Amino acid sequence: MLLYLFLTCFPFLFFFKLKPVPPWPTELKFSFACILKLITNSLDITYFTPFPSRMSLKQMSFSSKVDSFEAVEGGGGGAISVLDLPDLALECIIERLPPASLCNMAGVCSSLRSMCTADHFWEKHMRNKWGRIIGPAAYREWQWHVALRKDSSHLKQGRPKGLMRILSMVRPSWWFKPKVDDDRSEQSSLPDDSIMSWFLALESGEFWFPAQVYNRENGHVGFMLSCYDAELSYDQRTDTFQARYPSHGRRAVAIENNVPWERLRAPPIDASLHNLHISDCLNELRPDDHIEIQWRRNKEFPYGWWYGVVGHLESCDRSENYCRCHQSDTVALEFNQYAPGSRWRHSMINRKEHREEGNEADGFYGGIRKLSRVEEISTWKRLWPSEILQ
Questions:
Q1: 370 with 285: CB under 8 angstroms?
Q2: Which residues form the signal peptide (predicted)?
C-alpha cells in the first residue's frame, strides 16, 4: 500500500522540483508596492536620496553629480533602488513630480539626470505656471538669450563679431540685453536650449521676458483699464514681478515692483508695440460688444490696449428690435470708466476705412480687437476703477 502511494505521488514531486514557481509575481507585487509607497509619501524624493526636499530651484547646480546610485546609498546592502523599478513605473513617478523634486531627482545619478531633464517632463510645468503670460515674443527673447550665451566669448571684446554683431543689429533696441554668466554656463551640464533651462531661468528671475501689464505703474490714474507692454522679471521670494516699461517721448524707463500675476498677460497680438494692428472685426461689431483698442498719446508713444464697448449712435433709440447701428459705416465706442461729458468717454471710427484716427490733443486710436472669451472680459471688469475717472 505504501509502495503504491509512493509511485503515485512521485511524478508530482519530481515536477515541482523541476518547475519552481516563477519569481515575477512576487517581483511585480514588490514593484507596485514601491510605487504605492512613493505616491502615499507625496512623491517626496528624499525617500530615495539624502538631498533636501525644499532645495531652491535657484540653488540647484548640475556641475557636481554622482555617477551611480550605489554611491549615494553608501553600500547599504539590500537597500531599495529607484533604478530597480520598471521603466514605465519610473516614468509615471517622474511625470508626477513637482519642479523642485524633479531637480532633486536629476541630481541623483547620470541615468536619472538624463530622464529628469527631458523636455517632455518639463512641458507640463512650463505650461501650467508660465503658459498664461508667455507668448511668441517671450519665446523669441529666450532664443536671443540662448544665442547670446552661446556666443558669450565675443562679449569680452570691444566690438561684437559674427552672430553677436547680427543680433545687435536686428534685436529690438528697447529691451535690455540679458546678463551673461560665463561661470554658470561653464559649470552647468544642462543644455541652454532645454525647457528645463528656460523654466529655471524664469524661476530664478535672471531672464527678463516681454509681456503686458494691466493698469501699469501701480494703477496710475492715467493708465486705468489699459494694458501696456513691459519687460518682466520674476521674484520667487514674493511670487511677484518687477516690470520695466520702455521709454517714450521724454519719459525715462519706468520701473514697477511687486506686480502680481493677475495683472499680467501674454500679448494678444504678436506685433511691435509701435505697429498698428489691422482690425479684422470691424464689419461684425454691434452695440454692447466688448473691445480693446490701441491708443497712444502721440506718434512717439507706444500703443497700449484700452478697454471699451461698442455703443449706439445718437440717432438710435436703443431699442433691440429697431436698432440698425450695425448697418452703419460709423461705429460708436464708449469708455464708461470716464465720467459723462469727459472727452475720453466717446469716440467714433469708420467701419470701412479705419486705420489710425485722432490728433495731438486727444491722442490716436489704432486697431481694434473684439473680445469673445469670457476670461478676457471678466479680467477687465475685475480691474474696473472704484471711482469714475474725469
A1: yes
A2: 1-23
| Rounded-to-integer distance, Cα 338 and Cα 191, Å | 51
Question: Nearest to residue 236, comparing CAs of 54, 57, 105, 52?
Answer: 57
* pLDDT tens column, 126-170: 999 999 999 999 999 999 888 887 776 555 555 455 444 444 444
Q: Which residues contact 288 (CB under 8 A, 6 or more apart)?
A: 309, 310
Query: What are the start-end ranges of the E strands in 262-301?
Result: 264-265, 290-296
**Side-chain-side CA neighbours of residue 197 (13 Å):** 16
SS3 at position 232: strand
Predicted local distance difference test score (pLDDT) of residue 155: 53
The mean per-residue pLDDT over the stretch 329-343 comes to 94
Please say if the pLDDT value at position 196 is more than 50: yes
Task: Output the nine-digit C-alpha cell for 131.
Answer: 503658459
Is residue 55 pLDDT above 80, yes or no?
no
Distance CA 215, CA 231 (A): 15
User: How does the average pLDDT of the chain come out, rounded?
Assistant: 77
Q: Which of 269, 273, 264 is nearest to 233 (CA)?
A: 264
The number of beta carbons lying within 10 Å of the beta carbon of residue 76 is: 9
Residue 46 within any structural domain of the chain: yes
C-alpha cell at 297: 498719446
Q: Say which DSSP state 389 is in.
A: B
The average pLDDT across 227-251 equals 91
What is the model's pLDDT at position 278? Answer: 93
* CA of residue 226 relative to chain centroid, distance: 21
Number of domains the chain contains: 3
Residues 343 and 236 in one domain: no
Give me 345's grid cell.
468717454
Q: What is the pTM of this model?
A: 0.73
C-alpha closest to that of 334 among 358, 310, 367, 361 = 310
Which residue range(s) make up the domain with 142?
131-267
> For residues 48 and 106, is the Cβ–Cβ distance under 8 A?
no
**Same domain flag for 106 and 176:** no
Domain end marker among 116, 149, 176 = 116
211 near 134, Cβ under 8 Å? yes
Spatial distance between the Cα atoms of 317 and 227, rounded to a whole number of angstroms = 33
Higher-confidence residue of 83 and 249: namely 83
| CA-based nearest residue to 36, from 104, 85, 101 | 85
Q: Both 258 and 305 in a single domain?
A: no
